[in-house]
Amino acid sequence: MKAALTICFLAFLAAPAERVVEGNSRSVVRVIAYEDLQCSDCAVYRKMMDERLLPKYGATVAFEHRDFPLAKHKWAKAASIACRYLDSVKPETGVAFRQWVMANQTSITPSNFEAQLLEWAKSNAVDPALLRAALSDAKIAKLVNDDYEEGVARGVARTPTVFVNGEPFIETFTVDEISKSIDTALAASKK
């Protein structure tokens, strides 16, 4: 499966212009993560990114997010839509929301998701009415669906699935495993 995922990577190497990139957007080394904002393993990966990967590689590597909300997670798709809207308002706000959602997954439920979302908006200088309206915006939902379909086409079935220049890491992996792959990709990019 890893080989098939690696081969599929080449078809999806270029990032659309609307993508938010954390780190060095011009880097040829790309870490692309298919994530579900309600997934606990994705929250572990987000923490790994914030605490270890971005501090170490932020100047030299592009880190990109892809939405892959799993059907079993009842508020994940709405969270992805909200995040994509926030990305379009101000990339840093989208990143901050993604970090907040991942850090607060255990307190968010399908019944309180919208209330928590709007409370987050108020405390982060985001217009709650515009954010609520974005949840039903078909164009934004299509961006999330397109990411999901792209992931399926690449063989993604579980989250997080992270590609380091095409090399897949699926669901559970260590910072050392990802770092080794990033180091290899960086070394290859200098040849």
Task: Describe the protein.
By secondary structure, the protein is an alpha+beta fold. It has one domain (2-189): Glutaredoxin. It is built from 8 helices and 5 strands. It has helices at residues 2-9, 40-57, 76-89, 91-103, 113-123, 128-134, 138-153, 175-189; strands at residues 21-23, 30-35, 62-67, 161-164, 167-170. A 5-stranded mixed sheet has the order 1-3-2-4-5, with helices on both faces. Helix 3 packs across helix 7. The radius of gyration is 16 Å and the shape is globular.
Would you spell out the secondary-structure blueprint of this structure?
Layout: H1 2-9, E1 21-23, E2 30-35, H2 40-57, E3 62-67, H3 76-89, H4 91-103, H5 113-123, H6 128-134, H7 138-153, E4 161-164, E5 167-170, H8 175-189
Parallel strand pairs: 2-3
Antiparallel strand pairs: 1-3, 2-4, 4-5
Helix pairs in contact: 3-4, 3-7, 5-6
